[in-house]
Design brief:
Belongs to the peptidase C40 family. With 170 residues, this protein is an alpha+beta fold. The protein contains four helices and nine strands; from the N terminus they run H-H-E-E-E-H-H-E-E-E-E-E-E. The radius of gyration is 25 Å and the shape is globular.
């Protein structure tokens, strides 16, 4: 085979490879971007389901420190988040400190619905309370106070001095 024919075959092979590499073929594979978009949609759907489930438990759940009793809907703050996330197949440990080490860190300015938000409500600087960010600067949590025992929605800004960190587990 002479040099001109070899060069022609190389050029044709290179052109075919370029067409395949750009995805312009009948058997095109889904792109990494498409897979990422699909995973994001799944995370967003789970987050919406978690927020919805948490809101539906308002008025039904009672707070009791150190309790994880799904049968009677009696939880502390972290067993509540554990319960709600488990309904969407997301496994969380029991305990706000343990949950504060799961997933990945997310800054307060990048919070999304479904992120866990952590606070210090008794010992300054120490995580001892957790809630679920629901969007629009609000979070839902299980707590006890002078006029509340159960699920409430609070403004994140009302807890700004107590805020410690947030984690994304979806």
């Amino acid at each position: 085979m002479n040099f001109a024919n070899r060069l022609k075959k190389i050029a044709i092979g290179t052109a075919c490879f370029a067409i395949l590499a750009t995805g312009a073929g009948a058997w095109e594979q889904p792109s990494a971007h498409a897979a990422s978009v699909s995973a994001s949609a799944t995370s967003a759907q789970k987050a919406n389901a978690i927020v919805s489930a948490a809101k539906q438990l308002k008025g039904k759940v009672k707070y009791k420190f150190g309790v994880n009793n799904p049968a009677k809907l009696i939880f502390d703050c972290s067993s509540f988040t554990k319960y709600v996330f488990a309904k969407q197949g997301v496994s969380l440990k029991w305990g706000s400190q343990a949950q504060s080490k799961q997933g990945v860190y997310v800054s307060k300015s990048n919070l999304k619905a479904g992120d866990l938000v952590f606070f210090s409500v008794s010992k300054p600087g120490k995580v001892n309370h957790v809630g679920i960010y629901i969007g629009n600067g609000q979070f839902i949590h299980n707590t006890i106070g002078s006029n509340v025992n159960g699920i409430i929605i609070s403004k994140l800004s009302s807890y700004s001095k107590r805020y410690i960190t947030a984690r994304r587990v979806l």
